[in-house]
Amino acid sequence: MTGQQAGSESFPKLLLHNAAQRGAQPAMREKRRGIWRTQTWQDYAAEASALAAALSDHGLKKGDHVAFVYDNRPRLLIAIAAAQALGAVAVPLYQDASGEELAEPLRSTGATHVFAENQEQTDKILEVLPTCPSIRCIVYDNDRGMSQYKQAELVGYDTLLEQGRKASGEGSGFLKEAAEQVGSDDDAFVFFSSGLNKSANGAVFTHAALIERARVLAATEKLTDKDVTLAYLPPGWASQTLLSYVQPMATGFCVCCPEASDTLLSDLREIAPSYLLVTPRMLDAIVSQVDTRMEETGGLNLALYERGVKVAQRVSDLTHAGKSVPFGDRLAKTACEILVYGPLRDALGMSKLRLAYTAGDAIDPDMLMFFRSIGINLKQAYGATETGVFVTVQRNGDVKPDTLGTPLDGVELSFSPKNEILVRAPGLLKAYHGNAKETAKALDADGWFHTGDMGHVGDDGHLRIVDRMSDVGTLKDGTLFAPRPIENKIRFSPFVREVVVYGDGQDHVCALIDIDTLAVGRWADTHELPYMGHTDLASQEPVYGLIGDFVAEVNGEMAGDPALAKCQIERILLLPQELSADDGLLSRTGKLRRHAIAKRYRALIDAIFAGADNVPFDIGIEHVGAEGEVHTDGLKIRNVKTVNVSQMRKAA
Q1: Is the pTM of this model over 0.85?
Q2: Mean pLDDT, residues 246-271 taken together
């Protein structure tokens, strides 16, 4: 190694610090074949050191970009650390993306090395290799099925690790020497958003920017090296990398990786983390699963659960309204803590959870307060990939259901004349990689990042979000129409997987609803309703009645809110297909690609607003239903009960 010593902190130096100060403490745990395996901070540093030595021999140098296509695994984190030790820039990508989706970030960053977890991911990289000439080395981890692959670019992770150990010996000596050449202002990561549009920009972050934000959040929430978290969201998502790599480097806590997505809940129970990042979609699934299981159980358990939920919500409403809680309700809540809430938290793997953030999308206030009411410290935060994730957080003792909290230390908020949220903070992106034009649009000359979100700060200092600027419109009468708050209310139903509402430029609002096949299927079974798969289920009149009744309840709630009263949903259509990221209708983090959905289903939306009651199956739909399903009566469109606000106000 040559050159001057680089100043200040970087991720390689933090890894060395953790290995020196917390060497024997667990840094990572991974479940494989039913057994949890632990790696200490010393193990972490030693393996990263050997891997860095081998990568250096394979041509990786400072400033190169290394892409990672992995599930959450310790080897992913170690490989990122090894690449950054050489001054390379890590580019985590979405592991469920197609080869075509991976090609764009690989080309735009000029990635020279790629870490692919297994044969499936390797095949994707080899598929696009002819269009990505910068790639010189592809490191595969799991060698199952790889014995016949002879491409010159391929090398196994174990082979690379052994080469590095022979070259540098055991321990972290190579890492110590390499880390001195990496400075705090060097580029550390490029994060590509999951993409609400077809193309996405790569946000570049320095070591200093992310470390500073991690330390501020740790100080705010008193995170320490005693905390434990579970890494299960896509590693390509900046929030997950912050949780599983950046924050552990800054605080020394342990990251646990589940065995598989279908073992997530059982792994969660075994780990019982103290700190967790969750998405509204995950919480929707948990509520749906709990409700369904309690319905199946029935009897005393169901009665206790329903009673406990009502008591919890009543006490929560009174507490947040600043009113006193009657003695009877306090006594009932104490009893429910023993009989309902405690066992429920245990069953969910949240018995030791002291902090959970919901991120990735807005959550319905009722959903937030449901979890808080059963003793889970679930809080909202606001941020974006470009802001180093966290901008505002709800503080303990000051959680409000309709806000996103107050700014973290060092964060400044401002608003454009159209109420777009502007952010200035030490943790902002440096630039969009190779895209000066988009960088200039997003970061103005005064250092303000333009988020694209509409919102405002109330008299209480809390940030409130309306919606994405691009999604906000007006009804024909000029009423402000923001779809996201309405969708969040409908998504609270255990029978609704996803919902998209439209109304901009119209005289009323309609909804395309994607039902939860499992939950609705169980409901159909209990009501002796025969069906053949999702498409058939979504066409049944009783299912329309089930969903319509819930939407009518939401309309009743909206009628009491002046901002939403005129946006009640008048018509619904149950989609015959699930919305999917593979179809380009959801992002890889589960967000609605609203404009893509509108384009795909334009004929259906037009038919709803035109007053049609049925639409032929083949209008606006490429394929429908499961094999063997035959339908001749088309897609149904049904009216939903609304509340006459004028009459309601007169009666009041």
Answers
A1: yes
A2: 93
